[in-house]
Amino acid sequence: MSDEEHHFESSDAGASKTYPQQAGNIRKGGHIVIKQRPCKVVEVSTSKTGKHGHAKCHFVAIDIFTAKKLEDIVPSSHNCDVPHVNRVDYQLIDISEDGFVSLLTDSGGTKDDLKLPTDDALAALMKSGFEEGKDVVVSVMSSMGEEQICAVKEVGGGK
């Protein structure tokens, strides 16, 4: 054993953000990674095996954060990356002047690192419910190191 210190640079390979799944087993309504983006599959079509090998799966999917349409064609026997997608509900505590929201976690702490959603209808619903003193619950979707408010619901009446 030497007395030298070994310094290793840690790099995130993204291994825990996704898991492999065979392309032929991914169905409509499931999730897939296309062009490094987590997507929800809206259409799957499989071509027949040709004389040059594998049947191919054609995926049409919508990015879960930007709502952009993405497509990919993968041999059905190959593995695709499938993102881990989590959805958690939080109670809205405050909306700051700069557009950040303060959310109450289950453990009683606060989560202050999210902005109002880019969807104007969702943002308006959050603001109006908050201003009227209603209990507003937001659903936060997280996947591949990104988080975004994806749904809003009002619970109960005003003050």
From TrEMBL:
Q: Where is this region: Disordered?
A: 1-23
Tell me which SMART domains the record gives.
Answer: eIF-5a
PTM comment? eIF-5A seems to be the only eukaryotic protein to have a hypusine residue which is a post-translational modification of a lysine by the addition of a butylamino group.
What InterPro entries does its record include? Answer: IF5A-like, IF5A-like_N, IF5A_C, NA-bd_OB-fold, Rib_uL2_dom2, Trans_elong_IF5A_hypusine_site, Translation_prot_SH3-like_sf
Q: Does the keyword Protein biosynthesis apply?
A: yes
Which Gene3D superfamilies did the record assign?
2.30.30.30, Nucleic acid-binding proteins (2.40.50.140)
Q: Among the record's GO biological process terms, what is one?
A: positive regulation of translational elongation
Cross-referenced Pfam families:
eIF-5a, IF5A-like_N
| Biased composition range(s): Basic and acidic residues | 1-10
- Which keywords does the record carry? Hypusine, Initiation factor, Protein biosynthesis
Q: Name one GO molecular function term.
A: translation elongation factor activity
Domain Translation initiation factor 5A C-terminal: residue ranges: 84-153
Q: What does this protein do?
A: Translation factor that promotes translation elongation and termination, particularly upon ribosome stalling at specific amino acid sequence contexts. Binds between the exit (E) and peptidyl (P) site of the ribosome and promotes rescue of stalled ribosome: specifically required for efficient translation of polyproline-containing peptides as well as other motifs that stall the ribosome. Acts as ribosome quality control (RQC) cofactor by joining the RQC complex to facilitate peptidyl transfer during CAT tailing step.
Family membership noted in the UniProt record: Belongs to the eIF-5A family.
- The protein's name is Eukaryotic translation initiation factor 5A
| Source species of the chain | Arabis alpina
